Amino acid sequence: MSAFLRLACMCALACVRGAPAVSDAPDPCVDAVGAVEKALTKINQDRQQGYIFSLHHLSNYNQAPHPKGSAGVIYFLVMDVLETKCHVLSREDWQSCEVRQTHETPVYGQCKAFVSISQEQKDVRLYSYRCRMRPAPASKIGRLCPDCPSRIDMDSEEVLKAAKLSLEKYNMESGQPNYFALLNITRASAQGGFGMFYFAEFTIQETVCANSTDISQAPNCTLMDCEFAHKGLCKGSHSVARGREYITVSCKIFEPEAAEKEKERHLLGGEHGHGHNHSHTPPALPKRPLGTVVYLPARQQQASLPPLPDSPPPFPSFTEEGLEEPPVTLLPLRFPPKECSVAHSHSTFIQELFDEDLDFNQHILN
């Protein structure tokens, strides 16, 4: 055998020995990312107030087999989230909702949750969650956009006036059969220029009064107290400039969730008139998860303040599933960061908010 041939054979053998082994083992990151997306959907569905959260980054996770062997996996998830422009009343999918941009004062934070997912990835159960959110610092936004609207207190007199006047304008122009009343102010900002502009976002609910009710009697209108009452989200503004008053408003009314479910039941059981000689018996509701959302003030001096104390969401209880309560060591709550992440936002500004905030960049529970 020639020297050249021997060298070629040796190189080929080295390549074979050096080739990486192909593993058929499932990628745990794929399951973790799927778990965090499903968990965030469940969190948004459970919430009754505020704006829908969108996933920015899977910060960390841990997992353990479910005590009921065939039930799948229990996940403890730590996810960085961003507030979107969609209100939870809309029941929209978080993946289709737009995240607020820099000039709109983003609200960012972190959710920690326990969730179980069956082996078929179909049955998802949210046991508990805890979210902490805060707005971006005004000083940081001001450096990038000095002329942008600034976030202000939602209970200020000017904001309440903007909400009141814009709601009156909506009721006069909407063509809705019933009068709508103010529920909650959800965001407020102000902007200067050739006049002072006040902006308010607020939720509204249908009342028992006809829309033709005299405005002086509107405060006496009670909210429609039934699951079929319509609610909505409005964006209004009020300003006085050059001796003229300006009022703008736009509202989106949401179809009640109960009405959608009732419509489905009617279609499945055959159409019948709404004289209602039949009863509406809703199915038994599953046990709701234990969840909280806490809003923190903006962090103005990121580096100088220590992180705020935090606690995990309640540990899952499996007694209702016919299982004995497992020990807390089932799923360790302290763990090193894993090399598994997914980011849904590529904004440098947003990433800086998380990197500079000691409350959200530790990756483990305090």
From TrEMBL:
Keyword set, alphabetical order: Disulfide bond, Glycoprotein, Repeat, Secreted, Signal
PANTHER family, A to Z: FETUIN, FETUIN-B
One Gene Ontology cellular component annotation held by this UniProt entry: extracellular space
Cystatin fetuin-B-type domain span: 143-252
SMART domains documented for this protein: CY
SUPFAM superfamilies: Cystatin/monellin
Region called Disordered, residue ranges: 303-322
Coiled-coil regions listed in the entry: none
Pfam families linked: Cystatin
Entry protein name: Cystatin fetuin-B-type domain-containing protein
Annotated GO MF terms: cysteine-type endopeptidase inhibitor activity
Chief place where the protein resides: secreted
Compartments, record wording: Secreted
Stretches with biased composition (Pro residues): 306-316
Signal peptide range in chain numbering: 1-18
Superkingdom, taxonomy of origin: Eukaryota
